Amino acid sequence: MIDPEGIETLCSDMEVHHTDVRILMLAWKMKAEKQGYFTLEEWRRGLKALRADTVSKLKKALPELEKEVRRPTNFLDLYSYSFRYCLTEEKQKSIDIESICQLLDLVLGSQFRAQVDYLIEYLKIQSDYKVINMDQWLGFYRFCNEISFPDFSGYDPELAWPLILDNFVEWMRAKQT
């Protein structure tokens, strides 16, 4: 078992910060179940899939892993995984707003910078939601992918968007006027 300290050492050896999205991608590739830990089986699975048997080869495999994750089906899988990976307690089904803001920035920030920045701003000032569930999390991704920003063309509040996104659009439109 590699524990959080071991993962930090691994990151240091690979010259990658432990909060870098590529570490999340690595955990995804290993199908790691518990945040901050890699079991021997997960470690072997990930390294075999990346064809890496040394830290040096693992570091060299990261750009290829990034390319793999950029494929839409893989990205959606990583995006869903990132939420589940942050569920650290037994039977936990939601994640606090502060953690969601960090996760949004980490996972979606490079692809949808403007949307993510405004969404984070909104999440931090609103008071209706203390936590986010998986449906809302997946809604954020779908929203960023499907809705034109910042004019929101293509957004129909009659469609089945999570209420938090209806509220976000309302807040953004009020902000724009």
From TrEMBL:
Span of the signal peptide: none
One GO process term, biological-process aspect: protein neddylation
Name the UniProt record assigns to this protein: Defective in cullin neddylation protein
Domain of life: Eukaryota
Gene Ontology terms: cellular component: ubiquitin ligase complex
Organism: Rubroshorea leprosula
Domain DCUN1: 1-173
Role this protein plays: Neddylation of cullins play an essential role in the regulation of SCF-type complexes activity.
Molecular function per GO: cullin family protein binding; ubiquitin conjugating enzyme binding; ubiquitin-like protein binding
PANTHER family (alphabetical): DEFECTIVE IN CULLIN NEDDYLATION PROTEIN (PTHR12281:SF12), RP42 RELATED (PTHR12281)
InterPro entries from the UniProt entry: DCN-prot, DCN1-like_PONY, PONY_dom
